[in-house]
Amino acid sequence: MSSLSSRYSRQELFGEIGSEGQRRLKTSAVVILGCGALGTVQAEALCRAGVGRLRIVDRDFVEESNLQRQTLFTEEDARNAVPKAVAAKRRLEQINSEVEVEAFVADVSAKNIETFVCHAACILDATDNFEARFLINDTAIKHGIPWVYGAAVGSYGVSMTVVPQETPCLRCVLEDLPAPASAPTCDTAGVLSPIVNVIASVQVAEALKILSGNIRRINRRMLCVDVWENSYRQFGIAHSKEAGSCVCCQQRRFEFLEGTKSSVAMTLCGRDSVQISLRDGSSVNLGDLAQRLRAVGQVKLNEFLLRVTIDDFEIAVFPDGRGIVRGTKDAQVARSLYAKYVGV
Length: 344
Hints:
alpha/beta; TATA-Binding Protein; 14 strands
């Protein structure tokens, strides 16, 4: 087994980490929720940095379209449809055998997230929808665990670090979920690998600050980067917490963790379909959604609903955000497809 002084010497030479910071990394556990574009970059960087334990949770399997930006996967993984968490674990163990890597093939939900994040020193967001991020936020605030939000689509990305009781939380900044289909997803607008690497690297840097005992160094602003438009902006967010009315970190009401704000997936009896029901008050602009989805599938639109056929599936979306995914009885598959193409 290699010594810390040789393997991590260049990292230890950085004064704010040093040997003590490296020791802290070695005894820390990090949870990565999602193992797609952001998650693979995060996992590899933390593995190479010598974090003691990585716990990776992802519901999906590797596909050929992932290989453009999801750095831990191979063509063989895609041919064999290997679950992403499993493929990542195999590769990471080849990169650094000193790191304990745990892989969970699961859909993160209010029922299991607390089990996944127990004993974690930091949580990294690599999910693909805001409902999951609000669930992470609830859990992190409840248990006092720092977490780093990140998202990337097209050429644009954003990151924000949340330290419970010190910084604004995600619900301070975004009081409620964006309307369904109001924002593009990677599967409708595409994504460039450089922005993925930028945002994931920023998230890892924030995690290294937290884990090495340099929490004072975290970025207390929201970072927004567009690699195509050559823009790099930071926005002050401290005022959002000062208002003192946040449902989550001020009132300590954990609506997503308690399930009162979550969407519901239900298999329809006698049909190869799953219905996705969203929270009350949701609405979708079907015309705008149709315009986005025409790039990825065959779209049919009328005044009552939108239908899009993608591969072996059909997704029907109604103005209130309700969706019916045909071609599967698996609620997890249906939720994944809805998140990819409609967005929640």
